């Protein structure tokens, strides 16, 4: 089975690198933060998370910006959710990063925005 490479996209806005990056509030940022990730790398990240953290793991998650994100100082407040995972991690179709669902939040959250407590 041949695995295709995932497009390079900005982690903030999802735009291709040839477009201006826009934050959730529509403010431009100077550069895109991009990362080229293959489907195999994404699956390895999902497998590593799922083997180390079973469903029900207590986590602190940030659905928007993380507090350590340089843009967080410009956008207040940073939302923090504390809860237990209710799914294993997976990569949604058409997305470029692994996600997980949290009991106290109604949408998926990227693993890059989830910290195990």
Structure notes:
By secondary structure, the chain is α+β, with helices and mostly antiparallel strands. It contains one helix and nine strands; from the N terminus they run ββββαβββββ. It has a domain at about 40-115. Helices cover about 10% and strands about 20% of the residues. Residues about 1-5 have low confidence and may be disordered.
Give a short account of the largest sheet: 3 strands, antiparallel
**What is the total tally of β strands?**
9
Question: From N to C, what is the helix and strand string?
Answer: EEEEHEEEEE
What is the CA-atom radius of gyration, in angstroms? Answer: 15 Å
The whole-number mean of residue pLDDT values reads 78
Terminus-to-terminus distance: 37 Å
What global shape is seen?
globular
DSSP helical segment count: 1
Outline of this structure?
12% of the residues lie in helices and 21% in strands.
Write the layout of secondary structure elements.
Layout (H helix, E strand, L loop, with lengths): L8 E2 L10 E2 L5 E2 L4 E2 L3 H14 L5 E4 L19 E4 L14 E3 L6 E3 L3 E3 L1
Antiparallel strand pairs: 1-4, 2-3, 5-6, 5-9, 7-8
Annotation keywords:
two-stranded antiparallel ribbon, 117 residues, 12% helix, 3-stranded antiparallel sheet, disordered N terminus, globular, single chain, alpha+beta, 9 strands
């Amino acid at each position: 089975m041949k695995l295709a490479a995932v497009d390079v996209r900005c982690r903030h806005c999802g735009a291709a690198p040839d477009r201006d990056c826009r934050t959730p509030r529509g403010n431009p940022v100077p550069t895109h933060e991009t990362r080229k990730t293959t489907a195999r790398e994404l699956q390895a990240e999902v497998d590593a998370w799922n083997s180390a953290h079973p469903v029900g793991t207590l986590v602190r998650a940030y659905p928007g910006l993380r507090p350590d994100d340089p843009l967080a100082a410009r956008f207040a407040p940073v939302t923090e959710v504390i809860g237990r995972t209710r799914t294993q991690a997976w990569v949604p179709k058409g997305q470029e990063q692994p996600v997980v669902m949290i009991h106290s939040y109604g949408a998926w959250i990227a693993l890059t925005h989830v910290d195990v407590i």
